[in-house]
Amino acid sequence: MNGFVQWMEVKLMPIANKFGSQRHMTAIRKGLIATMPLTIVGAFFTVFQNIPIDAYMKFIEPYQAVLDIPSRYTMGILALYATFGIASSLATSYKLDSLTCGILAVMAFLVTAAPPTRVFEDVKDVIGAGRYINLANIGSASLFGAIVTALVSVEIYRFFIQKDITIKMPDGVPPEVSNSFIALIPGAVILLLFWVIRHVIGFDLNGFLSTLLMPLKDTLAGNSLFGGLLTVFLICFFWVLGIHGPAIMGPVIRPFWDMSIAENTLAFQEGASVHNLPNIFTEQFLQWFIWIGGAGTTLALVVLMMFSKSTYLKSLGRLSFLPGLFNINEPVIFGTPIVMNPILGIPFIVAPLITTTFSYFLTVTNVIPMMAARLPFAIPAPIAAWMSTNWSVPAALLVCVNFLITLAIYYPFFKVYEKQQLDKEAEELAAEQKAKAAA
Question: Domain map of the chain by residue range?
Fold first, then answer.
C-alpha cells in the first residue's frame, strides 16, 4: 500500500497538477465558473415560477412572461457570457488587455454562432420587420464554439502584439485610446477570419463541434451510468491525491454540466415533467444526491468523528460540522487527513459510487425526479434537492437515505483509523509523561 501511495505521489500527481494548471484549461475553468452567479440567479426565477401551489400559480400566471425574462438572459445566453469570461481570463494570464480580448472574442463568437435572420414583413402581434438573433444560438448548446472562438481570438491578438503588428499612438495618448488603436489590426483579422469561415466557406463551427463532442457529453453528463460513475470516481480519486478534483475535471466536464442543466431547465420551462427531462447526470445530481457535505460525502465521516474517542478526531469533527452542513469539506479532507490516506481514501471513493448507482436507478424508475434548476452549492443538500426537483419530497428523502448508506460504509474504515489515532495519542501522552518525569 505504501508503494502505491509513493507511486501516486511521484508519477501521477505531477501529471495531474500540470494538466490542471495548464493556461488554456485554467482559462476555460475560470471563464465558465464566472458565469455561475448568472445561472444561479436565473435558476431561482425558474424555481419560483413553478411552486406547486395552485393559488400561487394562479396569482403569478399574468406575470409569467415577465418572470421568464431573467432566466432567458442568464442561462438562455450562457455561451455569450462564457466567451467573454474565457477570453478575458486567458488574456490576463498573458498580461494582455483583458477587456479588449473579451470584446473581440464576443464579436468572433457572434459572427460564428449567431447569424442574424432578416424578416421583411411585420408579423402581427409577434415580430416586426428587421434583423433578429435567435437566442438559442448563443445559449448552452454553443458552449464548445464559445470556448474555441475565445481561445483562438486571444491567440490571434497575442500573435499581433508579439510581432508588433499594431497601430501605435503618440506618447501622451490615454491608455484606453491607445489600446483601441492597438486592437484595430488584430480585431480586423479576427473578424475576417471567422466571417470567412462561417459565411463565405459556410463551415458551421458550432454544429461541427456539437456533432463531434455530443457522444462524449451524452456519456459524461447525460444518462449513462458508466459515464456518471467515471466522473465520480475521477473527482474523488484526484481529491485523495490532494488535488482539487473539480479543478482538474472542470475544463473537461464543466461545459457538459452547464449544457446539461441548461437543457433540463429549458425543457422544464417549456412544460416537461421533472421525471422526463433530457439529462440525469448534471452537476446538481452530484451536488445534492452524492456530495452530501462535499465531495466524497464527507458529512457522514464528520458525524462519526464528532463522537470519536480520539481527542483530535472529535475536535476536528466538531469544527468541521458546520462547514460540512453547507458542503465545504476542505477542513476534513486535509485535516483528518483523507489525502494520501488509504484507510479513509477507500470509502471516500467507494461510498459515492454506491450512492450514485442507487440514485441513478431510483431516477430511471421515476421514483426520483431529475434536476431542473441550478442552486448555490452552499445550500444544505436535502433543501437544495427538494427545490431543484420542483419541490420533490422523495428527492429530499433520498439525500437522507444516501447519507445513512454512506455512514454505514465509512464506519468500519473510520474505526480502523480511529484505533490508529488512539494508539498515536497514547504514545504521545506516554512520551510527554516520561519527559515530565525525567525533568
Answer: 76-204, 209-438
SS (H, E, C) 126-155: CECCEEECCHHHHCHHHHHHHHHHHHHHHH
Question: In this predicted structure, what is the pLDDT of residue 403?
Answer: 97
Distance, in Å, from the CA atom of 439 to the CA atom of 433, rounded to the nearest integer, reads 10
The pLDDT of residue 362 is: 97
Give residue 1's pLDDT. Answer: 46
Residues of the chain with pLDDT below 70 are 1-20, 124-126, 217-218, 220-221, 244-251, 439
Q: Which of 156, 27, 146 is nearest to 90 (CA)?
A: 27
Provide the 3-class DSSP secondary structure of residue 119. Answer: strand
Nearest-angstrom CA–CA distance, 18 and 241: 14
Strand partners, 131: 118
H or E element: which one contains 118? strand 117-119
pLDDT score recorded for residue 14: 65
The residue type at 70:
P
pLDDT of residue 207: 82
Residue 246's SS3 state is: helix
User: Taking the complete model, does pTM exceed 0.70, yes or no?
Assistant: yes
Q: Which of 42, 47, 46 is nearest to 75 (CA)?
A: 42
3-state secondary structure of 320: helix
Q: What is the DSSP letter of 196?
A: I
Whether the Cβ atoms of residue 405 and residue 355 lie closer than 8 Å to each other: yes
Nearest residue to 406 (alpha-carbon basis) of 355, 364, 369, 342: 355
Q: What is the pLDDT of residue 251?
A: 65
Q: Please state, in angstroms and as integers, the Cα–Cα distance from residue 370 to each residue in 31, 41, 183, 361, 366, following that order.
A: 27, 20, 46, 12, 9
- Fill in the amino acid letter for 191: L
